[in-house]
Amino acid sequence: MWSPELLGYDFGPGHPMAPARLDLTMGLVRALGLLDDDADLRVVRPEPAPDDVLELVHEPAYVAAVRAASEHGTPDPARGLGTEDDPVFRGMHEAAARIVAGSYEAAGEIAAGRTRHAVNVAGGMHHAKAGAASGFCVYNDAAVAIRRLLDDGVERVAYVDLDAHHGDGVEEAFWDDPRVLTVSVHQSGATLFPGTGHPTDLGGPGAEGTAVNVALPRRTDGARWLRAVDAVVPPVLRAFRPEVLVTQHGCDAHGEDPLSDLDVSVDAQRTATTWMHGLSHELTDGRWLALGGGGYAIARVVPLVWSAVVGEVVHRPVTAGVPLPAAWRERVAEVAGFDAPLAFGPEVEVRRWSSGYDPDDDVDRAVAATRRAVFPLLGLDAHFD
Ligand SMILES: [Zn+2]
Ligand SMILES: [Zn+2]
User: Fold this and answer.
1) How do residues 129-138 score in pLDDT, each as one tens digit?
2) What is each CA distance from 350 to 162, 272, 279, in whole angstroms?
3) Separation between Cα atoms, residue 22 and residue 5, nearest integer Å
4) pTM value?
5) pLDDT, tens digit (0-9, with 9 covering 90-100), for 199-219
6) Exactly one of 127, 165, 186, 254 is catalytic; which is it?
7) d(CA 110, CA 117)
8) What's the gap in Å between 90 CA and the centre of ligand 1?
9) Cα distance between residue 29 and residue 168, in whole Å
10) Which ligand lies nearest to the CA atom of residue 187 in the structure?
């Protein structure tokens, strides 16, 4: 799902959510040949979603408030509009509704069996609430896409959120819904926005065990982040048996990202993407919708991670050692003023959870807290599965 008009989601100069992150990403995707002609590949240009689609998860009064902000510049801080995180800009409603349309239409194609994999790198606006903007997110395209899947007859959807920040808006939208498993691997809310996503947050009445939260300590590195993903995501997905997998690939967990304190390399995030792809083939007959998300190291991280995501989706995987095309590197130097890496980096060594629990390691303790809290609710053994 891509259109240059998606670059219109722009909170203005100095805001971390700069459209250049998407522009440089699509530049690299094209330079790597990932969208070259292929009978099995289609690029769809989304048009802004109509109100009835937005209202699948948002309150009509909130949609009206976004429109007023968008057309007249009217702030509404009680609804998160006109705040430091979410300043009001002209065309905000259409720009945010276009992102939603990308994820909504992709979900419809997957539900109808017309495609197996789809990707919307502009999507993943996981903080938006039913009645409020939050954390750079105006409309929650991820929640709308999941709602569409359910409305189209899908019985169980798994959502995996790899962003450095807790996927609070999506979790909240399906907190009481046993048909949707939300799994979020993030820097602990004790040290990072939005402050939620604790291992003991498990889902509402009748849906206990369908919210899964891994709250990691600051400075978790790529190898240990992958260990945490490996220890939680595959077992809970296998137990839940989803029919469709939706993944959010916010890449702000990188060490160079200005908005988190994690230290997860591009190649660790690339590896996690290959795992998500593999899980879709193992569990959902390949029915997989991948979304973007946060990510504010706009030249050296975001384009690389999301090219790897697109590469998996289109079955042209970007593997270790693939060079970054010279013309694209020159453009990065021009736009961002510094050098891009020369190539995708080496494979990250993974020390899988099955190799044994280390109680002296703070990442292992965080993982164990999640497994203890949620595994029994899914019929899993916290020690052995
Ligand atoms: Zn595939
Ligand atoms: Zn984030």
Assistant:
1) 999 999 999 9
2) 17, 11, 17
3) 11
4) 0.98
5) 999 999 999 999 999 999 999
6) 127
7) 7
8) 39
9) 29
10) 2
